[in-house]
Amino acid sequence: KICDAYPQWQHISAGDCLRAERQDPNSKDGELINSYIKDGKIVPVQITIRLLHKAMQKGQKEGKTDFLIDGFPRNWDNVNGWEEVIGDSAEVM
Fold first, then answer.
1. Residue 27 pairs with which residues in a beta bridge?
2. N or C: more exposed end of the chain, with fewer CB within 10 A?
3. Phi, psi of 62, deg, nearest 5
4. What one-character-per-residue DSSP string does 60-72 give?
C-alpha cells in the first residue's frame, strides 16, 4: 500500500466518508444522504466534496500532506464540482 510506504500519505474513501456521515446523529447532511442512497441516487457532489475536505483537514492536523482519495471522482460532474469548491487549494495529481 502506498500509505504504508509513505507516512505523509493518507487513504480517504469517499464511500466511508458518506457512511460515517450517515451514522452521525449530529450531522446536518446525514438524513439527506440517507434519502439519496435509499432512492438509488447519487449524493450531491457538494456534500461529498465537503466530507472529503473535512477528512483532508483532519489528516493535515495529524501531519498528512498527501491524500489518496478512493472512489472519487466518479464522473465529470465530480471533477467540475471539485474544481469549483476546492479549486487551487489542493494540487491534484
1. none
2. C
3. -95, 10
4. HHTT--EEEEET-
